[in-house]
Design brief:
Helix content: 40-55%
Largest sheet: none
Distance between the termini: 93 Å
Order of helices and strands: HHHHHHHH
Low-confidence stretches: 26-30, 45-65
Shape: rod-shaped
Radius of gyration: 44 Å
Length: about 200
C-alpha cells in the first residue's frame, strides 16, 4: 500500500503515513454518505363533486317527494255554484283552470295530460260545445285510473260523468251539477291522499 499524498510505501493497517503524516486509513474507512430517499408525498383524497351533488339531490327529493306543494282538497260544489252565479260564470272558468292544473299534478307520469283553460275554451267554441263533454269524460276516466296510486277506488268514471252531463240535463238541468259533484269529490279524495303523502315524506 502507498500513501496517496507522498507515494511512500506504508503498511496495510496504518492510519497515518510515517513520512508525511497524512491520514490514510481513517479517510478510506469513512463510509460514503448515502443519499436520503425523498419523503413520500401524502396522498390527499379529494371528494368528488358528483357524489356531493347526488347526496344533496337525494335530500331535496326526500323533502319534496313529488316536486309540488299541497293541493287544495276542500273544493265545494255549493261554493262552485254560488261563485259562478255571482260572477256571471267567470269563476267557473277559473275553477276549470285550477282543476286541470291539479289533476295534472295528481296524475303526473301516467302518460296522459288534461288540457288547460285556453284549449278548453277554444276547442269547445270550435266544436259547438262537444269538446267540453269530452274534456269532462277524460277527467273522469283519468281520476279513476290513478286512484289506486293513492289507495283509493272510484266507482265513477268518465262514462258516468258523461251520462250525467248529457242525459242528466233532462232532470231539470241538474245533470251537469251532479257530474261536477263527482269530479269535485274524487279530486278532493285524491288531493287529501296526495297531501298526506307529501307531508309524510317532507
Amino acid at each position: 500500500m502507498f500513501c496517496p499524498t507522498c507515494g511512500s510505501p506504508i503498511s496495510d493497517d496504518a492510519k497515518f503515513c510515517p513520512v508525511c503524516g497524512s491520514a490514510v486509513g481513517a479517510a478510506s474507512a469513512a463510509p460514503a454518505p448515502q443519499p436520503q430517499p425523498a419523503p413520500a408525498q401524502a396522498i390527499q383524497t379529494v371528494p368528488q363533486p358528483q357524489q356531493q351533488y347526488t347526496g344533496q339531490y337525494a335530500q331535496q327529493s326526500a323533502s319534496a317527494p313529488m316536486g309540488y306543494g299541497p293541493i287544495k282538497a276542500d273544493r265545494s260544489l255549493i261554493g262552485w255554484l254560488l261563485l259562478s252565479l255571482v260572477t256571471c260564470g267567470i269563476y267557473s272558468f277559473y275553477f276549470l283552470y285550477c282543476l286541470a292544473r291539479d289533476v295534472n299534478t295528481l296524475c303526473q307520469d301516467d302518460g296522459d295530460y288534461t288540457p288547460g283553460l285556453a284549449e278548453f275554451i277554444l276547442l269547445s267554441f270550435v266544436t259547438c260545445g262537444f269538446y267540453a263533454y269530452y274534456w269532462y269524460y277524460k277527467i273522469g276516466n283519468r281520476l279513476q285510473a290513478n286512484a289506486p296510486r293513492y289507495g283509493l277506488v272510484f266507482q265513477e268514471n268518465g262514462t258516468t260523468v258523461l251520462l250525467w252531463q248529457i242525459f242528466g240535463a233532462l232532470l231539470c238541468g241538474l245533470g251537469p251539477i251532479f257530474a261536477m259533484n263527482i269530479i269535485i269529490n274524487n279530486t278532493n279524495a285524491m288531493a287529501t291522499a296526495y297531501n298526506t303523502r307529501l307531508g309524510a315524506r317532507a
